[in-house]
Amino acid sequence: MKKKVISNVSWVGCIDWDLTKFHGDDFSIDNGSSQNAYLIEEEKTVLIDTVWTPNRCDFIGNLKKEIDLNKIDMVVVNHAESDHSGALPCLMQKLKKDTPIYCSAVCKNILEGQYGKKDWNFKLVKTGDEVEIGNGKKLKFLDMKMLHWPDSMATFLTKDNVLFSNDAFGQHLAVEELFADKANFEILNREALKYFVNILNPFSLILSKKLKEIAELNLPIEIIAPSHGAIWRKEPSYIIKKYEEWANCYKENQITVLFDSMWGGTKKLAQNIAKEIFSKDKDVVVKVYNISKADKNDVMVEVFKSKAIFVGSPTVCNSITSNMAGFLEFLKQLKFRGKKAAVFGCYGWSGEGVKILYEKLKEAGFDVSDNMLSCLWNPFEEDFSKLSDFVESVF
After folding, report:
1. Pair (110, 32) in one structural domain
2. How far apart are CA 185 and CA 247, in angstroms?
3. In 10 A of CB 186, how many CB atoms?
4. Is residue 73 over pLDDT 90?
5. Element (H, E) at 115
6. Radius of gyration of the chain (CA)
7. What does the pLDDT average to over 175-188?
8. Alpha-carbon span 231 to 224, nearest angstrom
9. Contact status, residue 135 vs residue 42, Cβ threshold 8 Å
10. For 124-147, how does the pLDDT look when each residue is reduced to its tens digit (9 = 90+)?
11. Is 218 in the same domain as 277?
């Protein structure tokens, strides 16, 4: 069903209320999500993006109820990832032959890599290119390379001043009411941050430059229509400012303790480290997570908010636990900047665990303290007496 964004622009996407995982099983979904596609009806009718493959039949069926598919004059593919392009092969079979697809050159290559080479009428565009759609309005294309794929772009509708931003400025959030000002604001902000941390933070340096480029274009953006979640129609500058803030080595007065434990020794250290942190600064927010039990995407949000982290694992077979190893690989992928770290753990035989934690955190870009806390078997008073200096090393 069409939902009006403004008089000539409608939302024609799909809402997945029961979606719990995304990117395979790599991203946890807490409040549903949506794949947002948009229909612009001017002298020319334009479809902006589609939905992912499992929803293709519902998408095309609903679209046919709203408009004669032969009236669609062009399709814009801002990003070739399958959650935005999955319905495209089926849709193109139903549109007029030679209906043009506007996309970046890299997007064309990815579409053909995913769906095979088709006899599609590609129109390749880059930043600054425009296409007239009637009534004095144009679509302006903006390169958004690596936000978060090399093919990504955004599309700006002039006069109505709508930025179809694709993955930038979105959230995994199901919002029947469509707009950010209609959503639960606390949940909206949390999901926007979670989306940024887990998907866009690895490209924060690129993002900062891109935000400056967009500002220099002086586009009078009145609405931001992303490809997931709620549409920003009131003060869209709010989410732009948030992105500027988040992309600039963001941190709060928070320290997070992360651990895995086999028989409780490393857990005892983690709990006592948290107490020691708070004893040194009553204003600091302290969070503690067992990474084998906590949701990794939610934990990464807490790491992002932290100025420092403490990471602990027992030594297992001359290494660290497999859960911690996987977590640290994901941590490295997210490319956090400007954060401190310290490592700790228990051991029974050889004790390499803390050294491995140290090296992996260095590889992940953290400023890691040389003061490593390593305890033979269970920690006792002698070990706890070292906590003050250990914790102080990251303050």
Report:
1. yes
2. 21
3. 8
4. yes
5. helix 105-115
6. 24
7. 96
8. 6
9. yes
10. 999 999 999 999 999 999 999 999
11. no
Q: Cα–Cα distance between 257 and 312 in angstroms, integer? A: 8
Number of domains within the chain: 2
The verdict on 93 and 206 lying in the same domain is yes
What is the chain's length? 395
User: In which domain, by residue range, is 215 found?
Assistant: 3-246
For residues 58 and 160, state if they share a domain.
Answer: yes
Q: How many helices (H) and strands (E) does the chain have?
A: 13, 22
Q: What are phi and psi of 339, to 5 degrees?
A: -125, 145
Owner of token pair 């997570």: 289
Q: Are residues 229 and 305 in the same domain?
A: no
Q: Are strands 121-124 and 21-22 parallel, antiparallel or unpaired?
A: unpaired
- 381 shares a domain with 238: no
| pTM more than 0.90 | yes
Same domain for 291 and 222: no
The token pair at 271 is 């709990």
* CB-based contact 342:232 (threshold 8 Å): no
Residue 286, H or E segment: strand 285-290
Q: What is the pLDDT of residue 390?
A: 97
Cβ contact 103:149 at 8 Å: no
Task: Write down the residue that tokens 């080479």 correspond to.
Answer: 117
Please determine, for residue 123, whether its predicted confidence score (pLDDT) is greater than 90. yes
Q: What is the predicted pLDDT for the residue at 2?
A: 87
Q: How far apart are CA 285 and CA 282, in angstroms?
A: 8
Rounded CA-CA distance 344/340 in Å is 14
pLDDT single digits (tens) 75-103 = 999 999 999 999 999 999 999 999 999 99
Token pair in block for residue 330: 């994901």
Question: Active-site residue numbers?
Answer: 23, 79, 81, 83, 148, 167, 195, 228
The model's pLDDT over 142-173, given as tens digits with 9 standing for 90+, comes to 999 999 999 999 999 999 999 999 999 999 99
